[in-house]
Amino acid sequence: MALLEAATRVVLMGIGATVIMDLWLMLMRALGVPTLNFALVGRWVGHLCHGRFSHTRIGQARPVHREAALGWIVHYATGIAFAVLLACIQGLAWLQAPTPAPAIIVGAATVVVPLFLIQPAMGAGFASSRTPAPGRNCLRSVMTHTVFGLGLYLSAVLIAFVS
Predict the structure, then answer these.
(1) Model pTM greater than 0.70?
(2) The domain containing residue 158 runs over which residues?
């Protein structure tokens, strides 16, 4: 497989998996389950670009210009980065004949980023420890990232089929 083809597959896989994760989050919101507002991710990144890494409560931090758009861009770029991680771990042959376990495992493992980096930096504490329901929030994060992993697999299967 040529490098450009592999790169295209990985980018599309990351976008596809993120779309599947977003559909999951839409379902959760429709069921009344609170989910992350990606504008707050944009706010955090905006402040990060100005040298501030952590906040007591990101919702109370000064809004940044176009934070919603920035948050969504970061969200999809992160999905692509996680797809790159999967491709690096599994190799290019996996892209041609994807199997579910590696994608789901990598997807679920990506939960360490929000639990131990993003949430503490945004003021929610390690593994949501500063929220009213840390256990429930952690479980939701694990489920969402597992759905992302399933999305990595389903996207890879579709891309391999079309190719």
Answers:
(1) yes
(2) 3-162
